[in-house]
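Anyone able to model this chain together with calcium ion?
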Amino acid sequence: MLLHAVFIVITMVSYIQSYPSYLDEIPNGYNVKYKPCADDDPVSWLAVGHVQKQASDTDRNKFGERFAYYNNTWTLELCNEDSDLDGVTNGVELGFTCTQSNIDTWADNPTSLTLGTPTGHPGICEPNTGTCVEQNANLTLPVCSTAAGKK
Ligand SMILES: [Ca+2]
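re: yes, here you go
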């Protein structure tokens, strides 16, 4: 019984600790925030590739699905994609200029790059209004009646 409990605790710790390594694989991974509506304060979202901001969540958002498709690697293709279909590329949302040179530097020595400020969340269509409401259908988010206000 005790051995079983120890195994569960070790498994849970390993599971929870797996997310920070992915945050190191994308630019500004620890600085991604989500802003549901224009007048909201941004909310930190450490589970960048998941539908909930908590690190224990396992369901991937569209950015998480695409990140997995590229073998959990920040690539030029992923940088240039707009995974959440909000009209802004993943690179812009993560404060990264999408060039092959920058991608190569990111792979070899990421701390040598000067990153920009993240402008949004790469896996959640923002603001959550209009066509974004459909794109975010699998997410539990407040819906904005306009770009600025909530319903
Ligand atoms: Ca986007």
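Strands lie at 33-34, 43-44.
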